[in-house]
Amino acid sequence: MSLFGWLNDQLLRMQWLSDLVTSSVSAVGLDPATRLGGSVQFFVYDVLKIFLLLSVLIFAISYVQSFFPPERTRRILGGRSGLWANTLAALLGTITPFCSCSSIPIFIGFTAAGLPLAITFSFLISSPLVDLASVILLASIFSWPIALAYVAVGLVIAVVGGTLIGRAGMEDQVADFVRTTPVSDTDQSMTRAERLAFARDQVTEIVHRVWPYILIGVGIGAVIHNWIPATTITALLGQGNWWSVPLATLIGIPMYADIFGTLPIAEALVTKGAGLGTVLAFMMAVTALSLPSIIMLRRVVKTPLLVLFLVVVTGGILGIGVLFNALTPLFL
């Protein structure tokens, strides 16, 4: 366990980087114990750590993802039904490092290919909400139990949400053009060199897409961590407040960011006394219920189905938030 703890601290939490940044901040005349120095230390350390981990993780996950292009994933899910099919769709969603908006074209392809709505929505919910990179990044900031718990509850929301939507019998609530969208049957295997090139390109594309949100998220986290009193955060988002989970969910909806941009904010909120369930609800709302993704989804499904999706996912997020606030002592 001591070896695991050392590896976790040095490779995931990057304690060596934290010490290096702290020394550098002190060397330029700033005291990390002050608000300004602490903000600079928090910002530089979290930005470097997230970008380093993100680049390595996205490369590794994209290499794995190259074995599961949309056509192959569709064929794996084709002909399956029931809880197992929803679970498989949710699990396949975890190996796709997409934001909610970029998951919608895959949703269109799956629906056009005739996959049941239960399966396609389980994939659509899981893909932006949970991915393998989020497990490592959450562990690097919080702990492995919290990281695994986040993934578990994300999968539960995806499976249960897809199942409920499938049982509602709303196949006719999908936009007409979706059913007639051409579906590619090509599934060309890649050479090792092509997979490496694909992984490299994914790193470039995803980092280019998310870097503004990471900088903004770390900046907000630095302000929360060093300038906002813990009593203020506890009064608004403390786990004992019944309104904290709905408020955090509501705040998260207008924001648009990958989970990578929400992590520094979540870290600062938990440090200042926000409930764990409240923070998880905020992260899930940002990734699964962002306004841009809702607007895009409205173009491919009709209003009744969109409303059902929002009700199911929001209800799941609120329930998970309340549950984890009650179970916080088990994790922190």
UniProtKB/TrEMBL annotation:
Keywords: Cell membrane, Membrane, Transmembrane, Transmembrane helix
Location relative to the cell: Cell membrane
The keyword Iron is annotated on this UniProt entry: no
Protein's UniProt keywords contain Membrane: yes
GO cellular component, as recorded: plasma membrane
Transmembrane region(s): 42-63, 83-108, 114-139, 146-165, 210-228, 240-257, 277-297, 304-327
Membrane topology listed for this record: Multi-pass membrane protein
The family this protein is said to belong to: Belongs to the UPF0718 family.
Protein's name in the database: Permease
